[in-house]
Amino acid sequence: MLFAVCAPGLEPVLLGEIQALGLSGHAVAGGVEVPSGDVARLNLWLRTASRVLVRLGDGFRATAFPELVRKASALPWEKYARPGSPVALRVTCRKSRLYHSGAVAERLRAALEARLGTPSGDTLAGGQLFVARLDHDVCTVSADSSGVLLHQRGYRGPQAKAPLRETLAAALLLAAQWDPATPLCDPLCGSGTIAIEAALIAARRAPGLKRSFSFEKWPGFDVRPFQDLRAAARAGERPLAARIEASDQDAGAIAAARENAARADVSGIEIVQRQLSALPADDGPGLIACNPPYGVRIGSDVRRVFRDLAEAMRRRPRWRAAAVIADPPSAAALRWSRLLRTQNGGIPVDFSVFDPTPAG
Asked: Is the model's pTM score more than 0.90?
């Protein structure tokens, strides 16, 4: 059993990605359960997952520490960590008689060391992470196959204020059902994440192509199939079919966006310094996708930003808009429909869309 973890609220989008890969899955709070699948393929291709976990067998019932140690000692830890290599344990307990996460982690560590003789610490230190959950007295243990979180594609360098995580930017585009054959514009681009993720989607670039993963260090890992998988991903890339624009009034943001686009090795993004109010007219179809100011970026007049956005939409009458909205009343200049609700930087936000086409 595999479990693809995502930010709360992104489960339907992640499920759609998994199904697009030809796999079945079941969305639950916090992610998608995948009965079977290729760990390498999921890590390489999922755009909205935070990490991919592999269950160490079925969950087992444990109501006392000796029982926990005995049953945990039977788990196949050796499939995911080498003797003597650093590991870490993260434990959560919910509605269980063994409710102290630190004490549970201590017993699981003892079970792991009894089987592997592995010194385990409280930090990863480049080693293997195991995630354990004790829920209603049932303990499940999983190995993290990803390593650093999957939003870290490897291209982000300079950042503007309150940047949008790569996984959230991709989720906004996928939830809005953007067609890469139509133009896209982010007129509030900051460090360029939305435009870069759009370019990766349009180019059919695997988001994990330029990074490494924990599963590559697992005992018995055969590098050749993964090399073939990467090669097939590269062979499947294609040029952008439509214009992708990124603009911002801040010169520092534009410099960051250009550097990040270069790091991502995506060509064809038009990055210009420009105020939202100066966004030119366009009579064709397209999508404006943006992350307007909120939270630590609240220094801007948010209502004015959305009024300017509404004016921009009038100059582009056949364009749709998708936006990250933290304060819906401030966005009332357009009739938004919520796609999903999640968090960015600990702030609850809506991913919403404006469609100028009348319903029905």
From this structure: yes
